[in-house]
Write a structure and sequence with these properties.
The structure holds two protein chains of two kinds. Chain A is an alpha/beta fold. Chain A has helices at residues 16-35, 58-69, 90-99, 114-119, 137-151, 169-180, 209-213, 237-244, 248-251, 274-277, 285-306; strands spanning 47-52, 73-78, 104-109, 125-131, 158-162, 184-188, 204-206, 218-221, 259-261. By secondary structure, chain B is an alpha/beta fold. Chain B has one domain (56-362): TIM Barrel, CATH 3.20.20.140. The longest helix of chain B is centred in the middle third of the chain and has 17 residues, at 209-225. The chains are: A alpha/beta, B alpha/beta.
Chain lengths: 311, 423
């Protein structure tokens, strides 16, 4: 996978065949999960540590479930209970976990590049579960799987990623993945929430939702990350909703059967209208969560195979 | 005592316009003669064949680590690194702990330099008390004690009112104000130059214009007050264009840059390499080229190492949390020579940027080969090839942004007041 085959740190740099084969494997886990069976022998005796320096419920739970369905011993460490609060550095934590012979290390951190740093110092396979505003590779994989299952392909699809792109690691991973797979990606948001030279990542930039959503096959709304805002990039939530919140009026500019996606957790009435989020036909938000578990099982499977410990 | 003659050497002294093959005679620590001379009886002769001899380099921007950051560098360890880099005079940043805002501290730093026997330390005084950017420091008293200029170090003087006051007041003492040219509000929280690289890495970014914005303001304030402003480590074409224009208008505006800004660009931070995290951050390739042009056309007055020692714990952190700064003493000359080898600047110009020019800005008598002056000398090969490797550099901290860089040209010998301190 990206950078090395030992870790999953970022989508940038991954090749389409690698992505396709991961998605294919994830498909098989969707079927397994729906059948109610598990495959507990696959990661039996392996240790997976969920190392979360930032709060998360859904991603942590998703990885936990994925690990358990494959038979791994799963341990959850969150920052509030760890010694990081006592001044231990990231690398001290890494050394400690390394000494515990952990096989798979799932890391979420508020700082971009933190998993890359950890990966240099531990023997375990490091899986980036979201780092700062850099990448969230498993989210992009699950989004791609969701789209591919619904549309049968990724190539040639017009996909709009809307809202707070600046602070979104989900957006960056999705841009890299979808562009690599031949989708035509656009980002739509206020100029203050679009990162500089975003076009250089291969996307079209729009500041108007009606124009940006025109003829799109998929519309992804991003969470407005008010906790990461430093400069008051938008004046108010209500103004944001008026111009960038995904409601049926704005959605009407996309294709009539366009899919609606959101990485969660949602700010209802801010970046997405509840009626759109809950629409049984258009919204695939719940399906994204289901695909998340399958994709993470596929990632754990592949990395565990690539990282047989020499015991 | 230390009498010796360096023979068969190319003597370059831009201050006096000297560039000729010859010899230099040192007696009792002083340059006794130079040029086409014959060796007196029983004097040690050093063969300088194939090498260049120039004045000991004058580095106008160095963090010494003392007082307060001895875990990063001490005056003694910085002096070792300076000797390895051919540097015999350094101007020391005042934003230490405590900051250099008291005359006694200025005298202390000068003395600490003398104690090494390797370098002359020319201290900068804090421009504002505690380098806090709130009220003027005692510029007159600090000047009297030997401060060679005034600056808040790595912090920009952000307040327009305070900058105006500092420029006006310092002018009465013939002192320059040295600015870290970066609008503090635009730069707050940022760790990379705004652009594609920062966008890809998801790093909080600073627009390159943050530099030009402060430069434009301070040029106008220098004009308003008649004061002298010097911009440190200038890194963008836009700021250089403003400085070029100000100089053409006869304003008292000068600037320096540092090797990372003409040798590296922002791609060096790829894969979150914290050794390449600097302040100001590395720029786009077009800005790097503009800096090279500024060296050639005279807009840039001097090259300083911008030596900022950081220990492993300062750097082994996620990129945005890691300390900015890189060491530069040991690599100053060789990275500069890369511009000579690529025909961007002449050898004489390179030496001028490292000797006569910074000495003039600092009002110091060093930086030239003058009969009767202390023999501060740098002997270097133009073509010896070596590779920068962190962990092997002279000095305490090893955070070089040039790790792995192959360089052509290397210091062979350094003399401080006639005493060989390197090579």
């Amino acid at each position: 996978m990206a950078v090395s085959n030992r870790h999953l740190l970022q989508i940038e740099g991954m090749h389409p065949p690698q992505i396709s084969s991961l998605l294919d494997l994830a498909e098989s886990y969707v079927l397994l999960n729906r059948s109610g069976k598990t495959q507990r022998d696959l990661l039996r005796g392996r240790t997976l540590i969920n190392l979360f320096f930032e709060d998360s419920t859904r991603t942590r739970t998703s990885f936990e479930l994925a690990g358990k369905r494959l038979g791994a011993d799963v341990i959850n460490m969150s920052v509030s209970t760890s010694s990081v609060n006592k001044g231990e550095t990231l690398l001290d934590t890494a050394a400690t976990l390394n000494a515990m012979m952990c096989d798979l290390l799932v890391v979420r951190h508020s700082q971009s590049g933190a998993p890359n740093l950890l990966a240099q110092k531990v023997d375990a396979a490091v899986i980036n579960a979201g780092d700062g505003t850099h990448e969230h590779p498993t989210q992009a994989l699950l989004d791609a799987l969701t789209i591919r299952r619904r549309r049968g392909r990724l190539e040639g699809l017009k996909i709009a990623i809307c809202g707070d792109v600046l602070h979104s690691r989900v957006a960056r991973s999705n841009i890299h993945l979808l562009s690599a797979m031949g989708s035509r990606v656009r980002v739509v948001g206020p100029p203050t929430l679009i990162p500089a030279e975003c076009e250089r990542l291969g996307v079209e930039v729009f500041h108007d939702m009606a124009q940006g959503l025109r003829d799109c096959d998929v519309v992804m709304a991003l969470r407005l990350q008010r906790e990461r805002m430093t400069g008051g990039q938008v004046p108010s939530a209500r103004e944001y909703f008026r111009f960038y919140g995904l409601d049926f009026e704005k959605l009407s500019h996309a294709k009539p059967d366009a899919l609606v996606m959101h990485p969660g957790p949602m700010n209802r009435g801010v970046e997405i209208d509840s009626a759109v989020a809950d629409d049984p036909v258009r919204s695939v938000i719940k399906e994204q969560v289901e695909m998340g578990v399958a994709v993470r099982m596929a990632v754990l499977d592949v990395l565990a195979r690539a990282n047989r410990r020499n015991v | 005592m230390f009498d010796f003659l360096i023979d068969n050497v190319r003597l370059i002294d831009p201050a006096s316009g000297l560039d000729q093959q010859g010899a230099i005679l040192v007696q009792a620590g002083v340059i006794a003669d130079l040029g086409r001379i014959t060796a007196p009886e029983d004097v040690t002769v050093i063969d300088g064949a194939g090498c260049v001899l120039c004045p000991g380099l004058v580095d106008m921007r160095v963090e010494l680590g003392e007082p307060g950051y001895e875990y990063r560098e001490t005056v003694a360890s910085a002096a070792l690194a300076a000797s390895a880099g051919g540097i015999t005079t350094v101007a020391a940043m005042p934003d230490s702990r405590p900051p250099i805002d008291d005359p006694a501290l200025v005298r202390l730093l000068r003395t600490r330099g003398e104690e090494t026997g390797r370098i002359t330390v020319l201290p900068y005084g804090a421009a504002t008390r505690g380098c806090r950017g709130e009220e003027l420091a005692e510029i007159g008293l600090l000047r009297e004690a030997g401060a060679v200029g005034f600056t808040d170090g790595a912090r920009a003087i952000g307040s327009s009112r305070l900058m105006r006051t500092a420029l006006a007041y310092a002018a009465a003492f013939g002192a320059i104000i040295i600015q870290h040219p970066e609008d503090p509000e635009l730069a707050a929280g940022g760790s990379a130059t705004q652009g594609e690289m920062a966008t890809r890495l998801g790093l909080p970014a600073i627009p390159a214009a943050a530099e030009a914005i402060l430069v434009a303001r301070d040029i106008r304030l220098a004009e308003l007050t008649g004061g002298s402003v010097h911009f440190a480590h200038v890194s963008t074409g836009e700021a250089l264009a403003l400085i070029r224009d100000a100089k053409a208008r006869g304003l008292r505006v000068t600037c320096d840059t540092a090797p990372p800004y003409f040798d590296l660009n922002e791609t060096a931070i790829g894969d979150f390499r914290t050794f390449a995290k600097l302040s100001p951050p590395l720029r786009a390739e077009s800005d790097r080229r503009a800096v090279v042009a500024g060296l050639a056309d005279g807009t840039i007055d001097a090259i300083a190492s911008d030596h900022q020692p950081r220990d492993a714990d300062d750097k082994r952190l996620p990129f945005a949390q890691a300390a900015a700064g890189g060491v530069g003493l040991a690599t100053l000359l060789a990275v500069t020579l890369a511009q000579v080898h690529s025909d961007q600047i002449s050898l004489t110009r390179a030496v001028e940027l490292l000797t006569a020019s910074p000495a003039r800005l600092l009002g110091d008598a060093s930086g030239t080969l003058a009969r009767g002056a202390a023999a501060d000398l740098c002997l270097f090969s133009l073509d010896e090839i070596w590779q920068v490797t962190d962990g092997t550099l002279a000095g305490k901290s090893q955070n070089t942004p040039f790790d792995g860089r192959a360089l052509e040209g290397r210091v062979r010998g350094t003399w401080k007041a006639g005493r060989r301190v390197f090579g």
